[in-house]
Amino acid sequence: MLHRFLGQQPSGFPMVVFFVPFVCLSLSACAPKEKVSWSDDKDLILQSLDNISQSQKLSQSNISLLNQRMLKLERTVFKQESTVASLEATLKQQKMKQIQWQMVQEQKKNKNKHDLASKKTSASIKKVPVVVSPSIPTISLAKKLKKIEKDIQKVSEVATRDGVMSKKTKEKDLYTAAYLSLKSGRYDEAILSFTDLLQQFPKGELVDQAYYWLGESFLSKGNMDQAIKSFSTLIQTYPKSAKYQPSFIKLAMAYKEKGRIGDAKAVLQRVIDEYPDSRSADHARIQLASLNHTDQQ
Known about the structure:
By secondary structure, the protein is mainly alpha-helical. Helices cover about 80% and strands about 0% of the residues. Helix 8 packs antiparallel against helix 9 (about 260-275). The radius of gyration is 45 Å and the shape is elongated.
């Protein structure tokens, strides 16, 4: 009766009541949810991975190139040593031949004198024909020996020059490999390489640079005692080095990490006093102000 009163079919109202909430729930389920996106970091991460890959390839390429150059130098030195040995052997052989020829000539000369004396004592005086032995080109042989000696001297000079160049190249190669290890974060490897360079080339052209980056490697590793030792050695031994002033700043940092604030301040003040207009002095003023501010707190 109620349905008739409302003028609706008996089954219509329950269907509407069921359908409306269902549609609402469906629409709410289809609503987009906020998702966490990593697109902002994606490019940076991919670029970092690509940089690491490129750095590894560069390191491998450098190592391969160094090995090839070392092998080439070893072959060159071996070839030159063989050439020198061959020339020395030839010179000795020529000298021996000259000595033997002189001995033969001396024997012939003595024999001729003896024969001439014997003929003079004979009753009949006859003219003794002069026997001329076939001459060996002594002057030509002497020139040849002199030329061989000059060749040996030239080869020795070339070998010495190449040896010096080889040492410089090896020093540079060791320095480059150690520097790449440091910049790649392989601090232990960098420390070993720089130490090896200093042992092999204690008077090399890159010793001051090696001490600086060795100290930097120790500083990165947290070994402040060795860092202090490396920077102090550079400061005391190489005052004309390009890394002389920056070493004071690094030394002050090592002193600070060790808790030796007074020593750190003294080093920084020395840079400011001795090189007031330098970039290192600007860095020293900033660090010194920071240390003084820390003391006031």
